[in-house]
Design brief:
This protein is mainly α and 160 residues long. It has one domain. The protein contains six helices and no strands. The longest helix is centred in the middle third of the chain and has 29 residues. The chain is globular. The N and C termini lie far apart (46 Å). The relative contact order is 0.18.
């Protein structure tokens, strides 16, 4: 996994920067975000996705003895992130008005595509396959896409 070091350093920095920008965006539009039932939870899901990228990047930079050790860490953290994101999506779904529920399912799908690769990657690393790292990168890419999309809603679309 040593050849992945530069990628994990870069993603940690990018995730930290985007997390900061979302915090600024939330603070600027806090009153408008709080006026909508589902938006505070959507902001927390977005932050969870970015923090997961940061967390996984840092964890994967820690020297470990085997891919199996890394696999256990990735699988454990992946399950935690999946539970947090899924709980957030269920909470948002319940608060979403009926006419928007179907549209919101696309958000749920993108969230799941963002976090499930961590779990798959954890299992692959546990089995001794470095292919698990590619799953983690897939999770990073989709998490960045979803978080930036949510940031757009929280910072720009809310003002319309």
């Amino acid at each position: 996994m040593n050849e992945w070091k530069d990628l994990f350093v870069a993603t940690a920095g990018a995730a930290a920067a985007l997390t900061g920008l979302i915090f600024v965006g939330i603070s600027i539009n806090l009153n408008k975000i709080l006026a909508h039932q589902a938006l505070p939870t959507r902001a927390s899901v977005s932050l969870a996705l970015l923090m997961s990228i940061l967390l996984f990047s840092v964890v994967l930079l820690v020297p470990v003895k085997s891919l199996s050790d890394t696999g256990w860490l990735v699988l454990t953290f992946g399950l935690i992130v999946w539970i947090l994101v899924t709980r957030g999506d269920v909470k948002i779904y319940r608060k979403t008005r009926q006419e928007y529920k179907r549209l919101f399912l696309y958000n749920v799908l993108l969230d799941q595509v963002s976090v499930l690769p961590y779990i798959v990657g954890g299992f692959l690393l546990l089995s001794g396959s470095e292919a698990g790292a590619y799953c983690i990168v897939t999770a990073f890419v989709f998490s960045f896409i979803k978080a930036v999309s949510d940031a757009w809603v929280l910072v720009i679309e809310i003002l319309r």
